[in-house]
Specification:
With 180 residues, the protein is an all-alpha fold. The chain has five helices and two strands; from the N terminus they run ααααββα.
């Protein structure tokens, strides 16, 4: 993640520097344009058109610069807040109300957890969590394909459906009540 941030940050800094150079170039052109008007080299109509074009370009550059600076700092702040929340997850969980704990657990396990008294299982783990757990390449390979020895994969439960009748359905079992 850090490398992605650094790489993205480098690209953003390059873009910011390019925009600053373009802004400086436009400032220089506006100064030269003013000098040409004062010297009488160009008329006021040509000056007005060119000046408005340069100022429009400059305003676009300034607004893009502000957007880049704002989005970069906002993204970094959100990223820091997210990682602080992950660092304090245990404390947040233990201090939360029951409803909040349910929300926290459902953010990790997108489908409901099923408890059988001793174990709990889920049909699917959050994809982000699964990728995070698979990042560590130094873990020994497990033949069962388990991410962790403390986690057991459960089979997906089929959705309920109507069963087709079988040959045995024609026989009348002794527990069946028949009304005449």
């Amino acid at each position: 993640m850090q490398s992605l941030l650094i790489n993205d940050d480098t690209e953003t800094l390059k873009r910011i520097q390019k925009l600053k150079n373009n802004k400086q170039q436009l400032d220089t052109r506006i100064e030269k344009l003013q000098d040409l008007l004062v010297d009488g080299t160009i008329d006021s109509e040509a000056y007005s058109k060119t000046y408005s074009r340069y100022t429009t370009q400059k305003e676009d550059i300034v607004s893009e610069l502000e957007g880049l600076k704002m989005s970069n700092t906002t993204f970094k702040k959100q990223f820091d807040v997210a990682f602080d929340a992950l660092d304090n997850f245990k404390q947040t969980y233990t201090e939360s109300r029951i409803e909040d704990k349910s929300i926290l657990i459902s953010s990790i396990f997108p489908e409901s957890l099923q408890f059988d008294g001793k174990k709990c299982r889920t049909p699917r783990i959050n994809d982000v969590l699964r990728y995070i757990l698979q990042i560590d390449k130094d873990l020994p390979k497990n033949k069962k394909g388990q991410i962790s020895k403390n986690m057991s994969l459960s089979r997906l439960v089929e959705s309920p459906r109507i069963e087709l009748g079988s040959k045995q359905a024609n026989k009348k079992p002794s527990t069946r009540l028949v009304f005449n």
